Structure prediction request, 242 residues.
Amino acid sequence: MRAMSLLSAALVLSIAAPGASQQWIEFASTDDRFTINFPHEPRVEATTYTSEFGAVLPARVYRAEDGPRRYSLTVVDYRSLERQLTEKSEACPPGAETCSGTLATSGRGQWKIDLRGALVYASWQLMQRDAKVTSYIWAFVDLVEGHRLQMTSNADQSRTFASVHMHENKLYVLEATAPRGMHGQEQFQQSLGWLDENGIALRYVDVYSNADIYLSGHSPPGRVNRAGTDANSGQGRIDAPR
Prediction:
């Protein structure tokens, strides 16, 4: 797959989503390094996201609708987390237990707990809605670990498929909601993919854990090299871990 600009739509899919009113497109963002299928070019909204320990992080929301179906992907940039929470700890009143010290669970190290718990916290926020959680599992997309949820709204019986992943210190929260008896959420949830720094489809050869890489000093897993191949084929040589 060649590099694409932030708002470029790549390929029109030849198979429409079940019950959908039109064919879908494969959308790619090289800024946020993902690909996903949308029913049409999504709207992009700048916003912020507050982390578990109060860091206000920049985010973008990609939204699209197909009749009564709603699709969104929120991308939250955690790269300023360490700076924000370190500054917050330095501004605490003298002697405040939760803001002093250099331990991993407080003070200057509190950002590490925030980053490590980002998947759980985002999943928990989804669970706070007026909905019944019918499935909650660990999952992965091209070996990038995450959480996957299904929820049924108690009010109108609509169904939401949601996924939460973290890659290169960015959090991805995916939601697809359709009225009772309608489908299409599966295609959106299952179409998420990653792009490398060159805009090439990215797949790892072992489980990618964002927290292990950025907090425990582990090397990222090797990558399947897809340059010069079908970006969706998963073929190519195995690159050594970087």
In short: The domain at 47-187+209-215 is CATH 3.40.1000 (Protein Transport Mog1p; Chain A). Residues 1-21, 228-242 have pLDDT under 50 and may be disordered. Helices lie at 81-90, 110-116, 118-127, 185-190, 210-215. The first helix runs from residue 81 to 90.
